[in-house]
Amino acid sequence: MSTKTDPHWDLSHLQLFAQIVAEGSLTRVAALVGSPQPAVSRRLARFEAECGGKLFLRTGRGLQLSDLGQRILPRAQAVLREAENLSRDIVSGAAEPAGEVRLGLLPSLCDVLLVPLFDELRLRFPGVVLRMQEGSAGHVEQWLSSGAVDLGVTLRYGSRKSSEFELLCDVEAYLTGAPDSLLTRNPQVPFKALGGAPLILPSAPSSTRLLLEQLARKHEVVLNVVAEADSTQIQQALASCGKAYAIASGHSVAGIPANRPMRTSLIVEPQIQRQLVLGRTPARPASRAAREVGSLIRRVIDKHMPRAV
After folding, report:
1. Distance (Å, rounded) from C-alpha 44 to C-alpha 18?
2. pLDDT digit string (tens) for 81-118?
């Protein structure tokens, strides 16, 4: 009587068992695996010892499954299939990034960046789940610093350099108003012309508000702020009514809905130029999924905002 030992279920034993079933001959299996037949016989004997009995009966027609072998075969094949599926999933996982990527961005970027980015991401990397939150430039930088987001797209001013931020493009500022507004009747409007005009601006300490106030002091312009709104959508909605003006970046102007007729003029003398940047959190190394999303962001920006806008 065979003595059953504690089975280790080595996958190579299961594979050998399945191969012998398929070939019906130890000689053919030995040739298939490139091993001497005695070595194959010894491996089969060890596996049979683990199973507690003979798996094959030797007949004039070759090897046939014993009752024990017939009971074990379906489950052994299931284990081998599952192992193959696991290997395929691991290889697929290594080839295709997956997981969650948290992205912080300005509300004004929703149309020009977020929509095409989402389309590209679903097409190229369906295993990546994008979790988005919008806020002011200050909020996005705070989220990056704390690790609340993996990536952030925001506006910066001046020549501040940081290894955590990558320049995407330069962005210019426009004055926006109703289709019949006087200050936007020409393609360009001098900054000094804004003096006394009713303006809807973000509240302090917004970086946009601080910059405008610095420029106003430098050029002796009095800003007439009649309303404050941190949402660019609210600013543009109020400006379109013709009672006041708002100041928007080029990408915001491009994203103004067609059902909201507005007229825009580039602010000059001086031009108000900002930098659209891609930031990465310093709180942890970037995952592969985060790196791929960053690459897609650059691709979308290059396509839709290839130069200063």
Report:
1. 11
2. 777 766 655 655 556 788 889 999 988 887 788 889 99
Nearest Cα to Cα of residue 44 among 70, 81, 69: 69
pLDDT tens track for 2-31: 455 556 677 888 888 989 988 888 988 888
User: Got the DSSP string for 79-147?
Assistant: HHHHHHHHHHHHHHHHHS--EEEEEEE-GGGIIIIIHHHHHHHHHH-TTEEEEEEE--HHHHHHHHHHT
Confirm whether pTM is higher than 0.90. Answer: no
CATH of domain 11-94: 1.10.10.10
- Comparing CA positions, the residue from 303, 281, 251, 302 lying closest to residue 101 is 281
> CA geometry: angle at 248 spanning 258 and 298, to 5°?
85
Please classify residue 268 by burial: count the beta carbons closer than 10 Å to its beta carbon, then call 0-12 exposed, 13-18 middle and 19+ buried.
middle
Question: How far from 82 is each of 9, 11, 15, 69, 86, CA to CA, in Å?
Answer: 14, 11, 13, 20, 6
SS3 of residue 224 by DSSP: strand
Q: Where are the domains of the chain?
A: 11-94, 99-304
Looking up tokens 């590209």 gives 120
What's the CA gap between 286 and 289, in Å, rounded?
A: 8
The model's confidence at residue 255, banded by pLDDT at 50, 70 and 90, is low
Taking the C-alpha atoms of residue 104 and residue 100, their distance in angstroms, rounded to an integer, is 13
Residue 178 CA to residue 262 CA, distance in Å, equals: 5
Is CATH 3.40.190.290 what the domain over 99-304 is classified as, yes or no? Answer: yes
Please choose, from the candidates 220, 169, 171, the residue with its C-alpha nearest in 3D space to the C-alpha of residue 194.
220
